[in-house]
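Repro:
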Amino acid sequence: MGQVKKVPMRKCIGCQEMKNKKEMMRILRTTEDQVVLDTTGKKNGRGAYICFSKECFARAVKSKALERSLKMSIPQEIYDSLKKEIDAIETK
């Protein structure tokens, strides 16, 4: 009998649904307290996962879920730059 490989699951901070880790993007707080989009999913730092949709991102911003997940306050310009990056990924 073959061994079944476990699929890593993560919870979206916007819609609160459990999904496959590869179906989501990771927003990362680096050790220098910068907030960036981690496309590889392997960078060091505290991460929060979110679906590839504008609705989930908007919900996470409105409920301050991103701030709670990353344990830091996030200025509006970082939200704006993340929104631009998410829009660029979603249109591909």
